[in-house]
Amino acid sequence: xxxxxxxxxxxxxxxxxxxxxxxxxxxxxxxxxxxxxxxxxxxxxxxxxxxxxxxxxxxxxxxxxxxxxxxxxxxxxxxxxxxxxxxxxxxxxxxxxxxxxxxxxxxxxxxxxxxxxxxxxxxxxxxxxxxxxxxxxxxxxxxxxxxxxxxxxxxxxxxxxxxxxxxxxxxxxxxxxxxxxxxxxxxxxxxxxxxxxxxxxxxxxxxxxxxxxxxxxxxxxxxxxxxxxxxxxxxxxxxxxxxxxxx
Length: 247
Description:
Helices cover 57% and strands 9% of the residues. It is mostly helical. Helix 3 (112-128) packs antiparallel against helix 4 (134-151) and helix 4 (134-151) runs parallel beside helix 11. The two termini are 45 Å apart.
């Protein structure tokens, strides 16, 4: 059945999402589309119901969009999602979470939408982890980061990975700054982490918020990247590089 408003009602159409039946049915039905595109000589890539067709110009793309939509709706009796369909440059679109660069020799990269979804997921975990130990939060983050890196290991551009790694470390520094709460506690923590007493006391009482302090030099020196690595924080860049270097 279908869960609607907390109540289960009978399912009258469609297939369960995430089950093996949905991709099987899509391949059975859309094999006819594959053969039609091959007959026309188009270059295309399809995964389940997500399909990209590559042509040489915008005008050709618009013609193909109209003709393929007609084929799907009239021949296969399917509805095309107009909101998710478009004629555009490949690097402005995403396919299975990936996009491509605009260079002549294109390279795979993670789409910006995929990065934003990851940040949203991590933000929810970090919000719940404000009252917990840092080691517990890193254990919760580890499978999320490893799974994401494994899926996007084909990316040739590391910029998005580096950006998320840096953003995540800054968020973790902010969590620690919140947990230390009082200026005296912050000063003692900074001194334990190697800051001189005068700098630690001055930094602890600066009156700025957690986000500002998490990006300031005193926390970057006290909590460098290797500090989080020792605690077990999974680095997206390091994980992808390791996966790509496997024979």
